[in-house]
Design brief:
By secondary structure, the chain is an alpha+beta fold. The protein contains 5 helices and 22 strands.
């Protein structure tokens, strides 16, 4: 690839795979409106390796699901105060065709004549400014919209979402930037004690082997929302997550981190 190439997701949800094959593990997803750099194309010309502009996450996307854009448009998206969808799912018109978008989709709702013809987008659902920061209370309300969404490895949508995809999208809609995977999210913000934890803080957990592999959002003292089998609310204490349905601890508490702090 000689010239840099850029793209944008113009489907509801697009799988991002570890390798250039339909049978390869899905490691993440692109939501409508997320833009990316094309790093390379597969030898057979059927796949492109992309880097998500939001979190720099890399993986392979089917070339049939790649929508090429110019470098100027890529930079416009990066520099613009676009809207982000806050409905769990909504209908929109894109080039006079219906597209169903999910919570966290990025919408180029700007009065910019340079890109009006290219986009032809109409949306009347609920949305907010992409970089407007919400309070912990609003973030918690948003997180609860995902209740009962099924767990899906690599998922980032209400129809299938993993633990770190859940925290990342909720924080993004609320105006905060989180990495894609829990191993990177745990490096962000400030570590606090479990006793200091409050709504909107992130709690990280280990499995029985002692490996950190899970993250959730604290709702209030003694409660956490997380994706485990489905997005659910469970009890939380100094030991970890207690699932009342099975009357057992499922995750051992490791650390709590605060990504943002409410203004006084």
């Amino acid at each position: 690839m000689n010239q840099p190439e850029y793209g944008i997701c113009r489907l509801s949800v697009v799988p991002v795979r570890r390798d250039a094959a339909d049978s390869s593990e899905m490691i993440s997803q692109l939501l409508f409106g997320e833009h990316y750099r094309v790093l390379e194309k597969s030898d057979n010309g059927m796949w492109c390796r992309i880097q998500n502009a939001f979190d720099n996450y890399e993986g392979w996307v089917d070339l049939k699901q790649h929508n090429e854009i110019s470098e100027a448009y890529f930079n416009q998206i990066s520099d613009s105060e676009y809207k982000i969808a806050t409905d769990l799912f909504a209908r929109m018109l894109y080039k006079k065709q219906v597209v169903h978008v999910v919570l966290g989709s990025v919408l180029p709702l700007l009065n910019n004549p340079l890109f009006q013809h290219e986009e032809q987008l109409a949306f009347n659902g609920e949305a907010k400014s992409l970089h407007q920061k919400w309070s912990a209370e609003l973030m918690v309300t948003l997180a609860k919209k995902y209740l009962n969404a099924p767990y899906l490895w690599g998922g980032r949508s209400p129809f299938g979402i993993d633990c770190s995809g859940f925290t990342q999208v909720v924080f993004r809609v609320a105006g905060y930037k989180l990495a894609r995977d829990s191993k990177d999210q745990i490096m962000q913000g400030k570590e606090i004690s479990p006793e200091e934890a409050g709504p909107g803080d992130l709690a990280f957990f280990t499995n029985k082997a002692g490996k950190m592999n899970h993250v959730g959002i604290i709702l209030k003292e003694g409660e956490i929302i997380h994706s485990s089998g489905k997005v659910r609310i469970d009890q939380l204490d100094g030991q970890g997550i207690f699932n009342q349905e099975i009357n057992s601890y499922t995750h051992q508490l490791f650390k709590v981190r605060r990504i943002f702090r409410e203004k006084a």
